[in-house]
# Entry
Amino acid sequence: MLRVSLIEFFLESGCGLNNQQFENENVCTHNDDFHGGGETNNFIETNERVIEDVLPCEVEKFMETNEGIIEDVLPCQVEKFMEANKHIIEDVLPCQVEKEVPLDNEDDDIQLPEQLEDAMIGTHHSYIFSDGSGFHKGYRFLNKEVVVNKLKLVAIRKGFEFATKKSNKSLVSVACVEKSCKWRVRVVKYISSNAFRITKYKPNHSCDLRSISGRHRHASASVNAEFIKERFREGKCPIPKEIMNIVSIELRCDVSYWTCWKAKQLAQNMIWGTPEHGYATLEAYRYEIEKANEDTFTALEVQDGRFLYYFVAYRPCIRGFKNIRNVLAVDGTFLTGQCGGVMLIASGQDSENQIYPIAWAVVNSENDLSWTWFFRQLLNVVPNTNELSIISDRNASIKKAIATVYDQAHHG
# Structure
């Protein structure tokens, strides 16, 4: 019987005990003493401590020695053996299984590969998987910033981290943080442009991912901006809390509110341009407006190469004001953007009592000079007559500017 042979083997191995210790424990090793289930149970109860100390290597040795016997055992005999030795199996297996578990599944921060079906388990603690980036030797990038953001985004998606081996104006070389892993990318700049291309690429990982936490070190504001920028192109403009949810669900990565706020600003700049760039291209904007809309009036004032004032009145607004009552309402409002400033507005009221915009301007601040400059430009659109009435608040600069430029108009 298999169970008798197994018990005999346990006793012969002694689990590190000598013959004298077996005698002291009243261990009986004779085959004739083990013919029935009741006798076997008595033996197990008497020698329970000895059996619990059996090492896995001794069991494996027994299995190899008695391979031919085990292959001949019928299913019914196996079931009978399992039932007779149920409590031994329950005591031995759990502790051995815990030793063989490859990953600590109680760690909530573990990030496994995105597609486990593509992963081949090489050892208990390492995986071989592709980074899924689609890169290849000769793959080109627009500039170095795009190189770095693309690599970080790939690392976040697949749940690994990399270290920069070398980085300068013409070269970027990175490798996996695990020294045993062979994943690495080398990108070199073209001589005649700012573009980069991959010259060396090993796409497969064979690293331990248990150290990766939910807060990925590569999940910077610039990387998140690169990931969400297309949503701003579509006009959705998500707020920071929505960006946090998007990154958490799609990239399985936790980022702070402040990081998402900065990512939003960067994404807006990527799609719409920076405020500095917008002010720098005002002269080209003026040209395009006047080219597309004849009789549109614009004016730009700069001082020492820096923006000061900008005025615009579109042709449809100029023509429409001739057909409504000669009443202007003027006021200013603060701009809350990065560059600040004040917007000055002149508007009327149409036949349906709706606000009718006539002209507007962006100035550095609301003062005597800016309001005077605004009304001088408005004079090219709205003539100075005694039939004109101008309404405003009690701003002293407005009162002075109207008295200087629109001396025939009524002000209240």
Q: What stands out?
A: The longest strand covers residues 355-363. The chain has a mean pLDDT of 75. The CA atoms of residues 328 and 390 lie 5 Å apart.
